[in-house]
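can u pls check wat happens w/ zinc ion
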Amino acid sequence: MPTDYYELLGVKRDATDADIKKAFRSLAMKYHPDRNQGDKDAESKFREINSAYQVLSDPEKRSQYDRFGKTFDDASSGFGGFNSSSIFEDLFGDAFGSMFGGRSGGNPNKPRKGGNISVNKVISFEESIFGTETEISAPQMHTCETCSGSGAAPGGIDTCAACHGSGMRTVRQGPFTMQTTCHVCGGIGKLIKDKCGDCSGAGYTQKNKKLNIKIPAGIEDAMAIRATGEGHCGANGGRSGDLIVNVSVMPHKYYRREENNLILEVPVTFLDAVLGKEIKIPMLDRSEEKVQIKAGTQFGDVITIRGKGAPDVHGRGKGNLIIILQIMLPTHLNEKQKKAFENIAEVTDDNMYNKNKSLWQKMKSLFK
Ligand SMILES: [Zn+2]
Ligand SMILES: [Zn+2]
C-alpha cells in the first residue's frame, strides 16, 4: 500500500531535520520489534517508518522525494526505495554530471573524482555496543566495461576536425590571437561518431552495488563510516568516490549511553535498600553482573562498575556502567502487613536516618 513518508512520521512537509529525527525516534521506540514481540503489524510499521526516515533524513533523497514521488511503495531496501532502475534513471538521467564530485571548469579531459554514495543504516543499541556487519546495497555508477568509459563503439571515435584534437582554437581579433575552447568538441578534442550500445554514449552504467560494511563496536549515533573508493566511478581516469554509511542507533528500552558510559536505572525494594542485598543486573551481552546493594542505600544512590560500559569506537578502552538505584516503596498492604509496619513504627526513632542535622532541626520546629 503506498504511503506518504511525511504522514508516516507524522511531520509537516517543511519539518526540519531535527523534527524528523525526533519523530522517527519516538515512533521507532514505539514500534521496535523488541517491544512488540510477535506483533506483525508493529513489525511492518517499524519497517515503514524506517524507510521513511532513510529518505527524509538524507537531504538529497528528500529533495528527490519531494520533486518526484508523492509515494513510493517499496522501501525495504537500504537505499530507501529508489532501487528501481527506471526511477533511478528518471532521477539522475540528465543530472549525470552532478554525480561527480569536484566538477569545475577548465580542461574537460582532466581526471575527475567520482561522487560519493550516501546510505543510511539504522542499528540496534546492542549492535552499536558490540559491532556488527551489514550488507549495503545501493545504485552505483561505474565505468562502462564495453567502452572503458569512452562512450564510443569500437572505432567509433574521431579526432575533432575543427581543432585537430587539441580541444582549443586560435581566434584572431585584429592584432591579437586568443585561445578559446573548441566549440565543436567542447574542448575534448574527440568526437563520438558511433555511441557505445551498452551505455548509450555516457561511458558509465548503473549497477546495484553490494558491499559488506563492518560497523565497529562502540559506534555512536549519527557517526558515519566511509568506505574509500566504493562510491561512483570517476571520469577520465579519476578516482572513484566514497561510500558513506550514516549510522543511526536505536534507543534501548533500559540502557542509555553518555559518552562511553552506560547508564542503567535499577529498581530495588525499600527492604533491600534498608537491609542490603546482592542483586543481579542483566547486561547487554545477556550475562548477569552481581551487584551488592549496601544496607542503608538511599534513593538515587549510584554504583559504578568500572570498565563495563561501552567500548570506545577508536579503541581507547571502555567506559563504566553506572547504576542508578531507584527505591520502590510498597503501595498495597494487607492487614497483616500493615500491622507489621505499625510494629516497626513503634521501634523507630530519628537516629535511624542519616540526616543533615541543622536542616532537620529547623524542619521539625517548623511543623510543630
Ligand atoms: Zn559504453
Ligand atoms: Zn574540437
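Confidence is low (pLDDT under 50) at residues 70-104.
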